[in-house]
Amino acid sequence: MVVLNKIYTRTGDAGETALGNGDRVAKFSPRVSAYGTVDETNAAVGLARLHATGDMGVALARIQNDLFDLGADLCRPDPASDARAGYPVLRMVEAQVDRLEREIDAMNGPLPALRSFILPGGTPLAAYLHLCRTVSRRAERLVVELAAAEDVGIPAVKYLNRLSDWFFVAARVANAGDDVLWVPGANR
């Protein structure tokens, strides 16, 4: 385990940072942007957790841990380096995607059918979950863009795609099915 006693290192003062394999890249590189936005998603989940209790709080805590797993996966660009690392390299796995799908199905089952788009809002928890959804969608776009140019594991992309759906359904649960509906042209 790495011990972080000194928080600042000055190694990034010239606009570069180290990836998990030690390579130095620009702080604006697509890979850093991708895992940085995953970290931003995690911070938004932390806000949502302030309003979550019971099973929802437990699920959000698990998702926060998964998001750290995802960041660890994304900061290691070369799958071939996994064997050379000398220690286990963390990668997202299909089981994490499958768990999200099962949870989405379980949450969505009792909800009333949607007959309109919904507006982000309602309860404080629902509003924060919608924020999580939109930030995770941005992270997904950045990871998909990264995957078009560099190696990214398929489970990492799939996880982010399911995660935004999870947040959407969880927001509906937080609103107890009393969604804030979009009324097209209501303000004309």
Query: Which architecture would the CATH scheme give at its second level?
Result: Up-down Bundle
Give the strand order, joined by hyphens, for the main sheet. 1-2
Describe the sheet with the most strands: 2 strands, antiparallel
> CATH first level: which class?
Mainly Alpha
**The number of domains:** 1
Shape type: elongated
The CATH superfamily name is Cobalamin adenosyltransferase-like
Distance between the termini: 59 Å
Commentary on this structure:
The protein is mainly α and 188 residues long. It has a single domain (28-174), classed as Up-down Bundle (Hypothetical Protein Ta1238, Chain: A). The protein is 57% helix and 3% strand. The chain has six helices and two strands; from the N terminus they run E-E-H-H-H-H-H-H. It has helices spanning 30-49, 54-74, 81-84, 94-108, 124-149, 154-174; strands spanning 16-18, 24-26. Strands 1-2 form a two-stranded antiparallel ribbon. The longest helix is centred in the last third of the chain and has 26 residues, at 124-149. 30% of the residues are buried. The model has no long low-confidence stretch (mean pLDDT 92).
